[in-house]
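SAMPLE LOG
Freezer: B-3
Tube label: C17
Construct: single chain, 272 aa
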Amino acid sequence: MGMWNSRKGQNRCGLMKELTQIKNGVLYLWIALATIVLIWMAVSYHSVAGTKLDSLLAGETKRGVETIQTRSMTKPLNFKCGIKACPDDHFTFHLKSGVANILGPRICFEGETLVSGVKNNIVVGLNIALLRGDTGEIVKTAAFDMYAGKVEPVVEFLKAIKPNTIVLVASYDEPAWIMTSEIRELFSNLGSSEILTLASRDSWVFAGVSGIIGKSPYERVIKNDVNTNMYAGWPGTVALGGCFPKTTHQNDMNQEHHLKQQMSNSSKAHSS
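STRUCTURE (predicted):
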């Protein structure tokens, strides 16, 4: 009987051991299956995420390219002489008188500075640039000392200007100390109105054309007045910019009337 019980106990222990091994095997199997499932899910997730990321990046790249193409197709604003460029049948210009006797004047035409202190072609007095009215080609620049200079060179220069030549003028410091009635008349023939009363140390800018009847709308002056002067003994600087109509070398009344009308319209629309 005791031997039987002993064998029965041994069998029970063996059975328990086998059951434990089976449980451990099943557990290991589940762990293996779970690991495989997790690996599969991770691979699938990264694959989908990668596809979405690629699509997103492709979309952003496409939008970026479209933005660049749109920007490249947008025509940038064109500026000349610091102002918006004029239509093809006009020239862009900007004039600025000197600042007292400290800073020189500037004459700019079609984006090119023709007269300035940097170019070292200015003097105290009247600084002038001549250009062809049809092509805008530079004819010459000149500067006349209107304080200690002579009258004769000024008169000779103004009388030699050919018809349909654009005349740009910017004063510096002293524009009228040696001014004569003959010089005033010659500038008046170019279209100036202010020249008749231009006085010592006035700030003056003017754009006109030779051979035209009437007065130019492109002219500004600040009078020398002790009550309003910006500087000690001088008024402030004066500036003028706009669109000057191209001319032809016809010299008849119809052309003169047409050009005068163009100048008036351009001044109202573009002058600044």
